[in-house]
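DM from R.C. (forwarded with permission)

"hey, sorry to bug you on a friday — could you get me a structure for this? deadline for the figure draft is monday and I only need the backbone to look sensible"
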Amino acid sequence: MIRDDIKTALVTAMKGGDKETTATLRLVQAAIKNRDIEARTGSAPKDDNQLVTEVLQKMVKQRRESADIYRKNGREDRALVEEAEIAVIERFLPQQLSDAEAQARIREIITETGATSMKDMGRVMALVKERLGASIEPARASGLVKAALS
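My reply, with the result:
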């Protein structure tokens, strides 16, 4: 399980004295714990790895946005910190599809659903999320679906 891999990596980072990795993995564990608490009242994914993957994808997205903002404001040092955190978090995400693979799979889904315009995007995205799940980031999938439907 991804959760166990994160715990193991945290212990290794702590023993190795890697303060940046330790801090990032503690943030990851805190975010997962918060999601566990939220899941008690709502509908939790049946698969624990899916829950953890959703948390990790959200954290990567937040850090990418932060890095962009820091760069726009001339804070390259802070942007590099955010990107270092992204590198640590992405170690625990499942292998991502390449652009060519993702486009091919999305075209298959579009053909299967008979989608022809942007009005069908919700239906296509639901299937993309269901079938491709953690192997593609939702924002990237959205962009590819928009491009394919345009």
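R.C.: lifesaver. Helices lie at 2-16, 19-41, 48-72, 76-90, 99-113, 121-132, 138-149.
me: no worries. Residues 106 and 145 are 7 Å apart (CA to CA).
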